[in-house]
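Rotation project, supervised by the postdoc (A.L.). Task for the rotation student: set up a whole-complex structure prediction and record inputs and outputs verbatim in this book. Inputs entered:
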Amino acid sequence: MKESTLNKIRSDFPALNQKINERPLIYFDNAATTLKPEAVTDSIVSYYNSINSNVHRGVHFLSQEATDAFENARISIQRFINAAHSREIIFTKGTTESINLVAYSFSKNFINEGDEIIISVMEHHANIVPWQMVCEEKGAKLKIIPMDETGNLIIKDFENLICKKTKIVSVSHISNVLGIINPVKKIIEISHKYNIPVMIDGAQGIVHKKIDVTELDCDFYCFSGHKVYGPMGVGVLYGKEKWLEKMPPYQTGGEMIKNVTFKKTTFNELPFKFEAGTPNVGGVIGLQAALNYLSATGLDIIYDYEEVLLKYATKKLSSIEGLKIYGTASNKSGVISFLLDGIHQYDAGTILDKLGIAVRTGSHCAQPLIDSLGIQGTIRASFAMYNTKDEIDKFAEAILTVQEMFG
Amino acid sequence: MSIEEIENQLVEEFGLFDDWMDKYNYIIEMGNSLPVIDEKYKTDKYLISGCQSKVWLLAEMKDGNVIFKADSDAIITKGIVNILIRVLSNQSPDNILNANLDFLDKIGLKEHLSPTRSNGLTSMIKQMKLYALVFKTKGN
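Outputs recorded:
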């Protein structure tokens, strides 16, 4: 990435211009949530200051404007992930709600006692617990794809797990703890041989890779707006029409109905069948602005630069004595999880914070993965397009300070 | 010494540092100097769970005062545990129950006591007061 492009990007994110503990903020907690460009916040303010109105129901001018903006955003998101139809784009609160929606609704019609659901060992709790609840309710079983010592999922073991009882496979695109990019295309190919649908948790995937759901051929893909420079409280569930049509509504109320009498209610068509209540219109418009911002900056430029940052940081951190990186496979993106010999991650995180560096410490909502690594947690640095090599240099220096203080 | 006297002493000690790093080095030192508790007590029975760091807390009654012993797997947490023990251990149940621990704000460590910090310290204070209450009830 050209220096001028990087400077332009940095100037678009006002949150970068602040000092934390009297030092310029170094924000390496992007896997938790990214900062927002002004284009996103402007679009939200502009929506509320002008066309704010409830969608899909008013005959008045503003309601029509708001509905158009909302539905245009749906089309723009459909194009961004290359879905076949805009009715396959369902707006949710975020990845967690998207997974809950599929777990609840898919299982109603397709999962019975004795059936099996496959997830992987490196899932975020959001892609574990909803399936666990389904298993408890239906008497189904949860099967886990293991990983090798470098963090790669063991596909052979997955092939052995899959069987006639398997009803759905749900795996993350990129691990939020290790940054490993999972071979989702391969997993989808194998599953489809048995006509088993696959859901991809794209919470981390959406921001680091070009997503083409048609090319991937996944049955469901979901992500959150706030992890891709958009606002919090809005997310997307992509689902193939053939599945969404066969699934019952997840929540009920206004917007998602066709006719209501006290005897019987008929439901609206896709996508509205899954969007009960007034949607987060401002959030959806903000998300569209975020994706537009990415496209305008250039996806390839961003992804290439993020790879440069990851490689630079990996090299820099690997040279620090007493630092161990978790997830050493080569197909990684955006995240470095590590521990310092003899230093608790909480202690390290506290001192890094004092040095103005925001990282995440702990189990990153993926306790089973952390347990499988035989550790209590990690320190996670996660990068975004506005981070710099200079920040990584300062980070490496800060780690040395931490080691000195606890040594 | 009364709780208030010890608190004032701590405020004075921490007043010597004008640099955050010196302050944290002192906390680390306090963490390292906290008497270790026997490994056999580091069980779920004595564990106060925080998702970031763990704290183990033991309490006994001696001559009308509550004696606390504790440990943590993180040194900064352990340092603050040491501070809390200095203030609350070897005090009467009533004094422990009445302690408001405002001094933590004065020495700039309040941020570690936030329930959202999930390092086990907030729960530790609750548990210390709970022990005091139990001993007080038993004593009566």
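Student's summary: The CA atoms of residues 55 and 68 of chain A lie 8 Å apart.
Supervisor addendum: Chain A has 15 helices and 17 strands.
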